[in-house]
Amino acid sequence: MAKEIGIHLSYWQVQWSDDLLPLIGKAKQAGFKVAEFPLLMPEDLDYSRLKRELDRQQILASCGTGLSPDTDITSPDARVRQNGLNFLKACIEGAARLGSPVLGGVNYAPWGMFPEDDFEDRKKRCVDSLQQAALVAKREGVVICMEIVNRFEGYLINTVQQGLEIIEEINSNYIKLHLDTFHLNIEADRIGEEIIKAGEHLGHFHCVANNRKAPGKGHIPWDEIRQALDDIRYRGFLVAETFVNPAGEVGRGLSIWRPLADDLDENARQTANFMKRTLIDV
Predict the structure, then answer these.
(1) Containing domain of residue 68, as a range?
(2) Of 194, 241, 249, 266, catalytic
(3) Phi and psi torsions of 92, nearest 5°
(4) Cβ of 103: how many Cβ atoms within 10 Å?
(5) Which are the contacts of 272, defined by CB distance < 8 A and separation ≥ 6?
C-alpha cells in the first residue's frame, strides 16, 4: 500500500444519502489519489458502479464507518451486538469490493454515545465482537482500523495506549489503529509521540486542522507529524477529513455551524497541494 493522499467524500456531501459517484471526479480534479467512502448504509451502495468510476478516474479507495446504538457491538443485548456484526460484515465486504485496504472510523463502539454501565464490560464485549469481525476482515483482505477519538465524542479509545491494549487482546493482524490529528490535538501531550507509540499498529491516518478546517489552516505541528510518520515508516493513506460546509444534515451532524471555507473546490485543491508539499514531498 502506497503512501498516497486522499479526501473524505463527505467533504462535498450535504445529505448523507447524496450520490458519491460524482464526488470521485472532484477528488481527482483537486489533486488527490484516494477517495474515502463513508459506509453508513453499506447495503444501499452500488459498488460495481462506484468501482468502475474509481477505475476510470484512476483513483484508489479507502473506507470508513461508524456504529450506532442499534449496531453497538459493546451492547449487553446479544441481538444488538449481532446487528453490529452484520453491519461490520457488510462494511468490510463493501470496502473489499471498492478495493479499499482499510475500514477506518469509530467501528468499535457507537460514536457520541456515553453509556452509564460498566466500561470494562463494554470493552470485553468490544474485544469479543472484533475478534469475530477480524475473521471476516482476514477473509476479505481488509484491515479494520479503530479510530481514536476525543473524550467528547467517545469513551472507549481516547489514546493510543488504550487502542494498543484492545489490539493486544484481540490478537489479529487485521485490527489496527486509525489516528486523526483533530482528535490527537485534544488528547495527546505531543502528537508525534503518539504516532511513534502506535508504530507498526498504525493502519490509517486522517489529516485535519485543530478547528476542523483543512490541513494547514490551524496550529497542528505538521513537521513533527511528518517526521513521526517517517520514523515509523508509515506507508498507508493520508486522508483529509475536513468538514467545512454547514449545509444540510452533514453539516449539522458534524457541528459545523458556520462556513469554514469560501469555495469548496478551491479549498480542496489547496488542501491537496499542502499535503503533497508538507507530508510527501511532491
Answers:
(1) 5-280
(2) 241
(3) -65, -45
(4) 32
(5) 5, 7, 30, 31, 32, 240
Number of C-beta neighbours around residue 3 at 10 A: 16
260 SS3 class: coil
| CA–CA distance, 116 with 280 (Å, rounded to integer) | 44
- pTM for the structure as a whole: 0.96
**Distance between CA atoms of 282 and 273, rounded to whole angstroms?**
9
What is the rounded distance in angstroms from the CA atom of residue 133 to the CA atom of residue 130?
5
The partner residues of 144 in beta bridges, in order of sequence, read: 103, 175
Three-state DSSP at 40 gives: coil
Number of folded domains that form the chain: 1
- Separation of CA 187 from chain center: 17
The answer to whether 258 and 247 have CB atoms below 8 angstroms apart is no
Active-site residue 147, yes or no?
A: yes
What's the CATH code of the domain at 157?
3.20.20.150
CA gap 203, 179 in Å, rounded: 8
- Write down the catalytic residue from 147, 168, 200, 266: 147
Cell numbers 520514523 correspond to: 231
Using a 10 angstrom Cβ sphere, with 0-12 exposed, 13-18 middle and 19 or more buried, the burial of residue 152 is: exposed
List the chain pLDDT tens, one digit each, 282 residues: 458 999 999 999 999 999 999 999 999 999 999 999 999 999 999 999 999 999 999 999 999 999 999 999 999 999 999 999 999 999 999 999 999 999 999 999 999 889 888 889 999 999 999 999 999 999 999 999 999 999 999 999 999 999 999 999 999 999 999 999 999 999 999 999 999 999 999 999 999 999 999 999 999 999 999 999 999 999 999 999 999 999 999 999 889 999 999 999 999 999 999 999 999 974
Question: Which helix or strand (DSSP H or E) is residue 126 part of?
Answer: helix 119-140
